[in-house]
Structures are given as structure tokens and as C-alpha cells.
Amino acid sequence: MKNFILLACLGMLSQIVFAQEFEITLELKPRFENRHGFKTLVPDDFDAATFVSQRSRLNLKYGSEQLDVYLSLQNVRVWGDVNTLSASDINGTAIHEAWAKVRLDSLFSLKIGRQEIVYDDSRIFGNVDWAQTGRSHDAFIASYQPNTTNRLEVGLALNAPSETLFKVDYDVNNYKSFQYAWYHTQLSNFGLSFLALNTGFAFENDGEQDVDYQQTFGTFLSFSRHKIKADISSYFQTGKIANQELNAYNFAGNIHYDLNTKLNIGAGVEYLSGTDMNSTSDAINSFNPFFGTNHKFNGWMDYFYVGNHINSVGLLDFYLPLNYHQVQWSIQLIPHVFSATANIIDDLGTKKDAYLGTELDAVFAYKISNSIDFQMGYSQMFATESMEALKGGNKDATTNWAWAMFVFKPNLFSYTK
Q1: Is residue 63 one of the residues assigned to a domain?
Q2: I need a labelling partner for 137 at 20 to 30 A (CA). Which of 32, 197, 395, 396 fits?
Q3: How far is CA 179 from CA 154, 243, 250, in A?
């Protein structure tokens, strides 16, 4: 792998004579966490988990008038997951991104390879940067941008487990394929986007593998003027999941107001439809945000839609963000009030109240320099019997999460012709 990195650097440097830009950057992100009820309520007599995880990334960027190339290599580890004399790593070095973007002319471009896909507020497509691994896709994206205020992108992905001679089952925990179109336009103080996404997932059907497709359609509208920023979004899902009909929807709205140059207050609400736990229908009514940066939404303790809560009872989330910032540091406080949007039924068959609980998130951030950031946070969940019926564990146990993180992003080398 070391030889591969060296050859990649030398190969790019050999093109500098013809290049407009070449850059090498590094990212190191060690993060300490203390988890006692993160993602789920604490079972009786369980102690908190404490560990340090770390992302290490080396990024190489080359750009010319017609071609952009980007390579991002990363290693994600937990401190101590191998002994001090280990000759190998559990996760090894992986390719997070490896793509080429070709500009066919001033209007059209093609982007091919492993890449992050991020649109609008990252609800449906996001890079999940909080997760140490992040999210990237093997995809082909064609872009048409006639001017600075309009852009259309069409994306395609077709996944297989390996090179084969004949058709084989796709057994990776991933989608089989997707096709989408995303359009964005800027109208004075308004930004408006439309998304149409078709996603195929493989499933077993009578001993053979089939693929069912789910369609997501939606729009995102943002507004910004003077001291006010606001956005609203709506998405609908239809199609099939393992031969079950899908009919789900998601609505959200946010508003933020600058009281002064340092203090910002806001309010927001999000509704994600769910399926009753006592439903006798074959239809699924649970909305799935698919490839979004779901840690950004619905509380930072990740009780909902971060590798969990899929095909469940949905969510109604009210929140009131408060942000105070100085030149180098900031404090953010966000209370969330959670409720289910479908029936919760306990083990005795009793219907529970929709109110799930309240979460309080707090974050302090300090910018040490242009390439060094420090952040720390604390979250606590105040759960109800309904949350206990949904998640298990003990609602009366102290349920909290604390973390502290450095982010180092030095620019190692840059050249502009």
C-alpha cells in the first residue's frame, strides 16, 4: 500500500507541467467517546463503553482545464484494536474516494468512480462525515450547468459482489442499483431543488434472489435574507420492499433568526411516517431516508435512522436550536421532543403513548488554528415507557453520551500553475 501511495503521488506530480492545480492534504480525527445509552436504552447492570476511534485520511487532488482527479485513502481504527507489535491492521487502508471528472464543454461534465454524493441539506444524500468511515458511492454522474443558478445532475449505480462469468446473488449489505435526477435552481433569495430517486434492493424470494425498486420523489426549498434563514422539504416514497407495497412520506421545516451577530435561535419540526406495530396490512408506511447524513437529524444520540429504526413506527421531532458563537469558539444547545407517528404496542399487546422522550444535545467547538479544531459534546436522553417498549432496556437508567474530538486538516503541499 505504501508503494501504491508513492506511485500515485509521483504519477500526479509528473503531470504538473500541464496542470493548473495539485494538492495534498491530510486529515486526522481522533475521537474519545463515553457511551451509556447511545442508540438504545441501557439494559440493567451494564457499564458505559469508553474508547477512542480515529480516522486518518490522505487526499490527493489534481485539476486541469478539462480534468479533475481526486483520491482519498483512509484508515479507520479503534485505539488498541491490535497489539503494539501487530504486523497488520484490522481494517487496513481503504479507498474512500477515487474519481475523475471530465468537462466535455462549458455546460456538460461527467464524474466517474468512488465518490461522496451530497445534495441540499443531506437528508436523502449525504457524506455522513460524523461517522469515521464516512459514506461514498461507486457511481456515474452526468451534470448539466447552463449558468451559475441552474444545475441538473443524473446519477447511476450498478453494484455486483465481484467479477463473475455468470449471474450470482448480490450478498453485500448495500443497494443493488440506483438511478436519480436532481435539479437545483436559485431564484433571488430562494433555492429550489427537486429529486427523483429509484433504488433497487435484492431480497430472497422462494429460494431465488429478486430485486425490488423503491421510488423517492421530493423537493427542498430554502430561503435566506438578512437575519432569517429557513427551509422546508417534502418527500414521498412508493414502490416495493420484498414484495410489500411501500407508501411513506417525510415533511420538515426549519427557521433560524440572528438576534445579533453572535446569537442565533431557531425552531424546527420533522415528520417521518411509520408503520403500526399491530398493523395487519402487508403495506409498509415507514419512510427511509436512505443515504442521508442521519446523525445530523433527530438528535445526536442516534436513536433514529442511524443504522436503526428502519421500517419502524416513524418519528415526529420538535427541536429548538440555540447557537452562540465568537470568533474562535461556539456553543450549541438543541433540545428535541420525540414522538412516534404510528402505534407502539408492548409485549402485553397494550397500545402505548406516542411520546417517546426528550433529548438534550450540547456542543462546544474551538478553532485553534486554520488546520486544527477541537470539539466536545454531551447528550442525555429522558425516555418514556413507550421508548422502552420500542427499544428495550431500562428507561429509568441514566442514559447519556459524552465525546471529545480533535480534527487536524493540514495542507501538506499545493501547486498552482
Answers
A1: yes
A2: 32
A3: 7, 20, 20
Q: Is the dihedral of CA 11, 14, 19, 23 positive or negative?
A: positive
Which residue in this structure is represented by grid cell 430554502? 222
Give the span between the Cα atoms of 404 and 290, in whole angstroms. Answer: 28
| pLDDT tens by residue, 171-227 | 999 999 999 999 999 999 999 999 999 999 999 998 899 999 999 999 999 999 999
CA atoms within 13 Å, Cβ hemisphere of 409: 10
Q: Mean pLDDT, to the nearest integer, of 291-310?
A: 96
* Residue 343 located in a structural domain: yes
**Could you tell me the residue range of the domain that residue 322 belongs to?**
2-97+209-416
pLDDT tens digits for range 212-237: 999 999 999 999 999 999 999 999 99
Spatial neighbors of 3 by CB under 8 A, at least 6 apart, are: none
| pTM for this predicted structure | 0.92
CB within 8 Å of 44: residues ≥ 6 apart: 394, 397
- Reduced to 3 states (helix: H, G, I; strand: E, B; else coil), residue 3 is helix
